[in-house]
Every structure is written in C-alpha cells, then in structure tokens.
C-alpha cells in the first residue's frame, strides 16, 4: 500500500517535544479514488510526524472490499505489511511475487529505489501498512524484499506479543531493521505489563476488541523513559517504537529523501520510466507522478 493522494503536500516535521499521553488522531484517506478503500492515517500527524523511525501508518478495515494499488515507486524507506484478515498479493520490480496472510510479514526495503503493486480479491480486509525511514547510512542500499511466515512471540501474564520487527523483551524478529526499533501485535487477554525499552518512544493503536485506556482510531504516543506499559482487557494492539530519529528528512508522495532537489529528481525518474524497474504481471498502468508543490520542500525533524 502507498500514498495515493493525487495532490500530496509536503509532510513537515518540526523540532518540539510532544506532551506525554498525546493522542494522534487519524485522518480518512481514500486509496485509489472515490470508490476505493478508505484508511485511517495516524502517521504522519499534524504535530508528530514520526515515532522512532516509523514515519507512516495506515490502518484499514475490517471492511469487505478489494485492494488494487497500481505499480508505484519508493525511495529511502521500508514498507511493512501486516494483516489481521484477508490476503494481499505483492509484486515488485525485483520480480517478487508473494501473498501475505494474517500472521505473516511482508517487508520491502526500497533503498535507492523500487516499485511495487498490491492487490486483493473482494473479501474482508483488515490490517496496517507502515513505513520505516532509512537512516543516511542505508538509504541508498540495494532494494530488497523479505517474507516471514514465522515470527517470535513474547508471552507474559495477560498478553502474547508477536514481534514483527526489532526486539521486544528479548524476542528478536528475523526481519531486517536499520535503526533500533520495535513493531509488535499484542494480543491482550486479561491484564499484564508489556516490557518497553526506556530509550524508545512508543505508539499504541487499538486494532480490535476493548483494551483499557485505548480507544478506536487514534494512536497513543508514549515518550521515552517508560520501562513498560500495563494493558488490560481483551483485544489486539499494535505497538511501534524506536530510538528518536534525529535526522531531518523530506517526505513527499512515496519518497523519503533529504532535499527538495532529490525529491524532484526521484519524481522525474519515475515520470520518465527510469530508475525504479518494472513490475511484471500487473494488469494496468503504473501510477502517474503527481505535480510537485509550488514551494520548495524543506528537510524537517520528527515533530512539528
């Protein structure tokens, strides 16, 4: 999945710390036009643009619909696909052809440039799509794709946490991560304390059910310094977190870069059919590149 807005604006990041207990409200974004599936986008938010290196979070469903995201480009990031219901077919310019199902992880590292598409049949879809910004040392790496059917689970009183990326309480995901971070789906059944890295900032998103202190929709932000979070109830929660990302970035459309000129060059390459390879097997045209905004894009920090 991707940012399919036809007139994407610069995604700005500022420099102030947010307040403890901050709630990041989602905004409804249609994917692919007025009849397309709607998602709730909580990252980037109006104030807080990132949590650790996590820079984009769309949640969708449960809804009976079909996903059809034509080939489109990415740079400087990783895409993370996680489903609770349904099945999505991934194709990319490396030649990858992979179905992802609930409990499995699709991880695509764009690096210096990749293109991909995603499709599903008409069915109940429920899941999240996230991006991870790559640090300067790795943002020009060769593109890569990983599919993980088996992921580690951290069990504790009242919860079981499947670790998508990074490390949680000693459970380490096999997925490639380029910054210190964590991503996990926590199944809550009762009450218990989920361990956290106190050096990380974190976000909690209620995926389904009822969990005390969380409400459907917004992403709850937890600042660094917490060794754990107590969760009680019955439901599923997405946990993301990481060391605060100190680099300034430019996010626009499906690109993460460092300067306006770099983003403009990425857009030009995609518009001219260069630099991102070809997605074979998709029945349709690739997404056209939107027009750049009239103002110059500026690199920003993680909060506004």
CATH topology name, in short, is Jelly Rolls
CATH class: Mainly Beta
Stretches with pLDDT under 50, minimum 5 residues: 9-20
Largest sheet: 8 strands, antiparallel
What is the general shape? Answer: globular
* Beta-strand percent range: over 45%
In the CATH hierarchy, what is the superfamily?
Jelly Rolls
Mean pLDDT: 92
| Assembly classification | single chain
User: Which value, in Å, is the CA radius of gyration?
Assistant: 18 Å
| Structural class label | mainly beta
Order of helices and strands: EEEEEEEEEEEEEEEEEEEEEH
Tally of structural domains? 1
Query: What helical percentage do the residues reach?
Result: under 10%
| Contiguous helical run count | 1
What is the terminal-to-terminal distance? Answer: 25 Å
The beta-strand count equals 21
What CATH architecture do you see? Answer: Sandwich
């Amino acid at each position: 999945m991707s940012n399919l807005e036809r007139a994407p604006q610069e995604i700005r990041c500022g420099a102030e710390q947010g307040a403890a207990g901050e709630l990041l409200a989602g905004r409804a974004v249609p994917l692919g036009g007025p009849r397309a599936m709607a998602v709730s986008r909580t990252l980037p938010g109006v104030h807080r643009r990132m949590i650790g290196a996590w820079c984009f979070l769309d949640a969708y469903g449960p809804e009976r619909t079909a996903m059809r995201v034509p080939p489109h480009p990415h740079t400087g990031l990783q895409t993370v696909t996680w489903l609770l219901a349904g099945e999505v077919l991934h194709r990319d310019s490396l030649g990858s052809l992979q179905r992802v199902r609930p409990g499995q992880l699709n991880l695509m590292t764009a690096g210096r440039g990749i293109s991909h598409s995603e499709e599903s049949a008409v069915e109940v879809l429920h899941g999240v799509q996230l991006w991870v910004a790559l640090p300067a040392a790795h943002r020009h790496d060769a593109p890569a794709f990983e599919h993980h059917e088996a992921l580690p689970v951290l069990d504790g009183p009242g919860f079981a946490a499947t670790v998508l990326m990074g490390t949680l309480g000693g459970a380490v995901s096999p997925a490639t991560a380029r910054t210190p971070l964590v991503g996990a789906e926590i199944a809550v059944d009762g009450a218990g304390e989920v361990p956290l890295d106190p050096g990380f900032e974190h976000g909690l998103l209620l995926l389904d059910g009822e969990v005390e202190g969380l409400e459907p929709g917004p992403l709850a932000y937890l600042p660094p310094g917490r060794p754990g979070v107590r969760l009680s109830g019955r439901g599923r929660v997405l946990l993301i977190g990481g060391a605060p990302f100190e680099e300034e970035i430019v996010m626009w459309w499906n690109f993460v870069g460092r300067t306006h000129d770099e983003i403009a060059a990425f857009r030009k390459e995609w518009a001219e059919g260069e630099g991102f390879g070809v997605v074979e097997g998709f029945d349709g045209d690739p997404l056209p590149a939107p027009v750049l905004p009239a103002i110059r894009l500026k690199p920003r920090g993680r909060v506004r």
